[in-house]
Fold these 2 entries.
Entry 1:
Amino acid sequence: MEIFWYIIIAIVLTVFFILDGYDFGTGIIHLFMAKEEKDKAVIAKAAGLFWDSNEVWLVAGGGLLFMAFPTFYASVFSGFYLPLILVLWLMIFRAIGLELRGQFDYPMWKSIWDKSFGVSSLLLALFFGIALGNVVRGVNLGGVENDISAYEAHYFFLPLWNAHFSPERTHPGVIDWFTVIIGVIAVVTLAIHGANWIRLKTNSSINEKLKTVIFRLSLVLVALTIFSLIVWHVIHPQPFGNFADKPLLIVFPLIYLAGIAGLFFTKSDRMKFGSSSLVIVGGITSSLASIFPMILPSTNDVNESLTIYNTSTTEYGMSVAVNWIIVGVLLGAVYMFIQKRLTAGKIDDMDYGH
Amino acid sequence: MEDMIFYDRLQFAFTITFHYLFPQLTMGLSLIIVYFKWQYLRTKTETYNDAAKFFMKIFAINFTMGVITGIPMEFQFGTNWAKFSELTGNIIGQTLAMEGTFSFFLESSFLALFIFGEKLMGQKLHLLTGFLVFLGSWASGYFILATNAWMQHPVGYEILANGQFVLTHFTALFSNPWLLPAFLHNQMASVVTSSFVVASIGAFYLLSQKNEEYGKLFLKTGILFGLVSSLLVAFPTGDWNAKNVVKYQPAAFAAMEGIFHTEDGGAEIVLIGQPNMVEKKLDNKIAVPNILSFLTYQEWDKQVKGMEEFDKSELPQNIPALYYSYHMMVGLGTIFIGVMALAAFLLWRKKLYSFAPLLWVIMFLFPFPYIANITGWYVAELGRQPYLVYGLLRTIDGISPTVSSGNTLFTLLGFVGLYLLLGLLFLLLVGKAIYAGPKPQTH
Ligand code: HDD
Ligand code: HEM
Ligand code: HEM
């Protein structure tokens, strides 16, 4: 049962990163590349039409996590208190940026909200990557100091950074050089993803330029991936243990590789967008698989890591929820299908009746 | 510990109050928009369609605000109330996750289509998407009230050795006797808000002699919905809720009504009076004897328990705030019925559109349903104190053990600043939409 919910939640959150990921990426490209008003407007619209229904996947994922793994939810949300609240604020700035730019026709008004959208998208991508980095690195569960826990074993509190910005086992901070690397990977990946989305959905005049941008960013991504694997070794002495023990898990890194290959070798915009989606899927699932069944490793020897087994709720609670989640997910898929059908094609060509 | 919980509560109260300013309009207005759209399909009068589109614009701004202030609410359960989340996640996680799965997906997927898709889909499908948005927003209200109902009156649970509350009967969450009255009352109250807003914009157009044709339509529709919902809010739904409070939270009821001492032979109903917590009595009281006993039990001389009967640790901590909130809600509710009845009467006699004094009143009345809704929630939430889950989990035992008060204060200040900005932008945009007015079809 735990595994079922773990997979469902992983799927919901991955879908969130694929869908809202292109909004973040669109924001990053918008920030650096869009120069003419016409492009700015249509690129913002390529995110603006969808951010709301995409964000629901996060809300749903959060709700499901709360339901199935309440101890994990409580521990992580209070432990990462400050970064989470910052994420909330950034999400607000991202949303109002998108919603407000079209409301008045003054260049200054538009440029304020464009910045709000672009900068918060960039920071959100960075923060989500850092979050993933924290999860695989682990935290000082229980706030252990000299072998004594300051809190209950499954609670912790992380400062934003420690004195050396390093992933120390005794006093990790949220931001250190390791998590920042993962954060930068997330930014690059989502920028590629967003660029693909813009090419897919709009006729903007920077589409040609984006082609080279995607190519270059893909090279950067390959370099960063290799680099991160090397540093990964420094942090975890036995980083690939899980993959050695359970060879089937290798499929997840393979998905990642397939995505990267697709970025270089596929031709159509659709396939390229598919490829960057695969990179996201592969990246998240590989990270999760590398620590499974842990969901938050403990960096001290006093308290146990959080796993899907020691943070889950009762059997009854999890099994009644199975009944409604099946209906819910099917409905959600139907809505998404209808929505995508009706809004298929390029944004600029659509007639909204305005 | 004391200041930790103080800032946690302040932050929750502030952010939820701000959030709830928006959903109450969303839920009520979606109903009225569907009504306009339906009238358009039925009568083929373009004015109705323009009205639907005009309110859709306001709806869209309002909806966005609801979404961006709602997400912090969900996160806050984990960030500020971690112990509570850990102990009750098994139960209220169900309803919250169902809200995300069943209502937010529905609402947000079809809202974009409703706003942009009129040409793409044709009129019948457009009405359908509007209806689905309405359904989504009411379903969301239903699940969130199911969550709150469990906190007010926990059912279908057992307590494990480690202190966790776990579900034993899933269906009990939805047959909770607290849920249906609260849901109906709350939804009617949101219709009150939206109809007063619609009527107020109508009155504004008539008084400023702009868009008068639309002004009349808005006024008429607002008064129609306003009268019916104001009546339903008071009776049967408000009354029904009061009976639930007497039954399940008697200490809260005594505090709401300002009854310090149990009186023999029937309780009076207090219309005006200020609780004096030192002498344990009401100052400057105006009261009508025996009515409260009758309203609560349909018996003129039945006893209603006063606060003296309860241990201090069982009584809500902030009794004056609870008492005033309750009296403001009920007082405003009575005024709403009065104003709407008068307006409906004048409408029927065809005198309303030229009767400026009442138009002015209607124009300035729209903030008051917001106040009634917020104070209504204060009654529910302050009355639940000192418990987070009534009778089971004290509020003090629900906070995050590792988050210091400095951090909470910092984020609280951040929210205050950010929401101030959001509030100003919201007013600017809605003001702009109202100023631009509804547009007749141009092609
Ligand atoms: C326009 C808003 C509005 C108006 C005019 C009223 N209410 Fe109300 N009331 C609400 C808006 C509201 C609310 C905000 O929607 C609440 C909070 C919780 C809930 O379910 O509904 C509520 C709760 C609520 C409760 C439950 C308190 C608790 O849970 O402890 C009672 C007993 C009443 N109401 C009673 C009344 C009565 C007798 C009214 C007579 C006129 C009345 N309300 C008017
Ligand atoms: C229906 C869903 C709601 C849920 C699940 C909910 C839950 C909570 C929780 C967990 C707290 C903090 C713990 C506590 O102080 O007891 C709280 C407090 C509070 N809530 Fe709600 N709430 C809901 C709706 C509302 C609404 C709509 C309002 C107001 C508009 C509101 C007003 C307050 C206030 C004022 C407090 C602080 C009370 C105090 O600390 O004394 N709540 N609520
Ligand atoms: C503690 C209490 C609450 C929490 C945790 C909460 C959570 C949320 C969240 C996460 C959203 C955004 C959903 C999206 O992305 O579409 C939202 C919006 C919404 N909430 Fe709340 N909410 C609370 C209180 C309430 C109450 C009391 C109501 C009304 C009964 C309500 C009704 C709605 C509605 C209708 C929306 C849709 C957006 C809108 O209408 O503006 N919420 N809420």
Entry 2:
Amino acid sequence: MTETPAPETSERYKTLIVVLTMITTIITAIVATLQADANIRANTANRDSQYYAILASGELHRSGLQSSYDLNTFARLLLEQQTSLMMQFTALEMEQSNDKLGTALSNISALAAQARADKLASFSVFYTDPRYAPKTSDELPNGDAYLADMSKKANEIVSKQNTAADSYHKWSSKADSYVGVLTIMAIAFFLFGLAQALTGRMRLVFAIFGAVILLVSSSWAMLILVV
Amino acid sequence: MLKRLNESPRLDIFIAIIIAVVSATTAFAAWRASMVSSAAGDAIRQGLIDAVKKQTASSEDWRRTYEEAGHAQTYAVTLAQVEALENSSDKTAQAQAKNMRQYLLPSLQLVVDLTTDDKYLKSDGTYDLDQRFADLEAASPDLTELDPEASFKLSDQYSSEQRWLTVGVVLLAISLFWLALSQLSTKRSRLATLAIGAGIYLIGLVWFGLVELIFLIVRGGAL
């Protein structure tokens, strides 16, 4: 009967440590790849969020100019309509008091104001666009629909910008976390290296510490990947 | 024979040479991945600069369009008033209209292109602001023809290449590990680890070459 010779003290657990180091290397390589990928995704999302922010500011500026023009036109139109009406009232009062010159001047003012109002109506989106124009002469233009339409495009861009910014935060956070994992894996490498240099029971103790740290960092990497 | 080969000092030198070659290749691959990453960053930077320039030009053109629109509207409204007064039977109104047409309207018309160029005049007497904006944009092609999306597309290509090159670098690093293992080993597994290391190195090398070639073609020859 032949007995299997026990390994030398200096060689014991050496293969185990080599295997653990190899596993750590492969896991580190995978985590490093994931970290690079997360970093690339964070950069792309960051770029998109900045680009959409530029587009949103441009659109807000443009819609601000347009609404300023539209509302100014509408205000001028109301003013001219009111002026025309008041001048017609004035002309009637002058006529009743037999002031012919006053009547004529008031009529001219009323005529001029009405001509200006009619022209402004053709410039006003609140009277030319069927989406906002009043359906009857008693109604007011649909201001709510106008405001909703004016901010629609800017809101769409801002929504895209928010999505990109959220994506940036998500991937940036993941990339940072992977760096944490890699740092812990470096500790595992250190412990396995120390274990390789030591002999006997201490070698096993350091190998176990290294293995525990490898397990924890691998679990953390999995958690980052899944969440 | 395998045992003799395992213990041969020539194998030690051979593995050392392979390790040196793989180390140099890995360093080169890491440098190239870093260069590609830098190129992606440059393309993003260029795209954002172009976007800001283009948007600024566009904002200025819209500002000018609406500024001119306000002046043109004043002209059109005054013209409508003049026409109404001219059609009136009142002599005073006619006299006012005559003077306004002679002195006021030409001054108002001089201020903006919208009122002087017939191509902007619409059939309802208003002005084509979109056409005016398009013409203002066309007047500064150096800014309006900037294409940030093209820079972003280029940055996406570089980023994608960087992603795949990183995989190549990892393969090379893994092969380096196996080769180092082979150098340290004295057992029969030495040749096996050497073969694995060399195999992974070759796969990494081919991978790296293919990734470079594919993206070189995609970018039309640009590094």
